[in-house]
Amino acid sequence: MEFGLNFFPVFAPERKSARDYYREVIDLAERADRHGFEHVQTVEHYGSPYGGYSPDPVILLTALAARTERIRITTGAVIPAFAHPIKLAGRLAMLDHISDGRLDVGFGRGFLPDEFEWFGVPMEESRRRFDEGLLACQRLWSEEDVKFEGEFHRFGPITLLPRPLQQPHPPIFVASASSPESCAAAGAAGHNLQVVPTIVSHETLLEMLDAYRGAYRAAGSPAGGGRIQVKYTCYLADDRATALERGAVFEQNYIDQMAGAIASWASTTSSAYQGYEKLVDKVRKYDFARSLADHKVLAGTPAEVTEQLEWVRENCGADLTVSLQLNPGYLEHEHSVRALELFAAEVAPRFTA
């Protein structure tokens, strides 16, 4: 089991400035690099406190690549529906070179109605645009004189420059929210997987992982299986009371900001997102204590977080890479630094020896 850092800015601007947030992220990434963490990654969102400080993950990850030496640089995830594939593939190929071949590319569908409206993209097209955008990027990276005839994009012949440093292309991850079918599709295509246990039941999570692993093996993909990143928010402190107090505060902050970002689902239905019209009510019912008991979030002392991760390893598989959110919400930077140092010194060695 390996560990990385996941940066997801979820807070109102009056809580923390963009400048301060980026400086803190860079500092944490540098520390994670020195401590041997496997990756750093960030999201793509727009126009709200729910991730809005990260409208372009490539820019932030380029800064992290310039300040680190070994750690992998991961998009978690870019949204093909909001970008032309020539531009997206070109920007990511540049980042692959700037990072000296440390790039992993996670692709996602997007799920916020407001974002699709702002970009003028119908949500009904999201799955088709995702599939087409991923395929176009993969071809642009690995082929020359590409002539592409898709439903949404037609271009070429074109030979993308620069060519990616990693050949035939950077490792591809597919972000899946709750669908075993999409996980199976990612496995069948030989891609890697990104999942978030917070939003699904443990039974559904196991179905997703089993579907992915089975499809990956059935496709005859390279031995050893695809890489699976599982994302957890982690509240780690020297004492349990402090960790749980922060967890209660910043999990509620996350719920409040997410509820605002998904509010339009209350008046939106889409055949491409079955059941999402109930998402607002589902989010409002979130309970931190129950989530901790259900192993959807990590919190406590180093010994307690170690025990929680041992449960994850035993129940979900030892082949996971855990992507940790150690700076949730507007948590003071000094506390995030302490959490990282504690994790590196007292938790990670139990799994990476």
Automatic annotation (TrEMBL):
Q: Where is the Luciferase-like domain?
A: 1-314
Q: Which GO terms describe its molecular function?
A: monooxygenase activity; oxidoreductase activity, acting on paired donors, with incorporation or reduction of molecular oxygen
Q: Cite the Gene3D superfamilies for this sequence.
A: Luciferase-like domain (3.20.20.30)
UniProtKB keywords:
Monooxygenase, Oxidoreductase
Q: What Pfam families does the entry give?
A: Bac_luciferase (PF00296)
The record's GO CC annotations read: cytosol
UniProt keyword annotation of Oxidoreductase present: yes
Going by the entry's taxonomy, the superkingdom of the source organism is recorded as: Bacteria
Protein name, UniProt field: Flavin-dependent oxidoreductase, luciferase family (Includes alkanesulfonate monooxygenase SsuD and methylene tetrahydromethanopterin reductase)
Species of origin reads Goodfellowiella coeruleoviolacea
